[in-house]
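I am still getting used to backbone structure tokens and would like to learn alongside you. Label the sequence line and the structure token line clearly, so we can match residues to local backbone shapes. Would you write everything just below, so we can both look at the same thing?
***
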Amino acid sequence: MSESKYTYNTRVKLCEDGRYRWIYEMSLLKNPTILFLIIKIFFAIFLVIFGVTTIADFIRFKKAEALFNNAKVLGIIFLVFMAIVIISYLIYTAVMGGKYIIEFEMDEKGVNHKQIPFQAEKARKIGEITALAGSAKGSFTTTGIGMNATRTEMYSDFSKTRKVKSYPRRNLIKVNGLLSRNQVYAMSEDFEFVKDYIISHCENLKK
């Protein structure tokens, strides 16, 4: 479905089937949530690499100097990768027309986050190209990011949700389970309603 033919319903609406539906349009430049998520993933990967290599070198050489040497090398590599991430993000932003558009569907059992069709198709193609490029270079990190980018839909079961965090400034509600991390967005006018609805239907939240 092309963008021109897509019908937008930005406000939360209760439909005849008892489900709430709405579409949220997010500026990829003004709202850095996705960029922050990518950076956090890279940072976590580098921490694991740093920890493993440092322990291995310390056991091998039994010198604290290994810690500083690894920190210096991996720090430079990390900065290079961050530059690549930012450039790639700007390219992604341009391809997506500067916005990330998500369709939400919510009922008493859970909430579904789905990128709208014409953007989802673009995202899948970008992800496939990235994964192939990573495989060709032997980069598991790039391949993993590419494969993850092909995922354009996520469902959160309220019964399996353990934590809900809200960020009103970014219109963001994080719905986190044991193995899932979902991001729900809503306009300011509907933000408190959506947040309260989610919390009231999550019976197993950690206090």
In short: The radius of gyration is 20 Å. Confidence is low (pLDDT under 50) at residues 1-6.
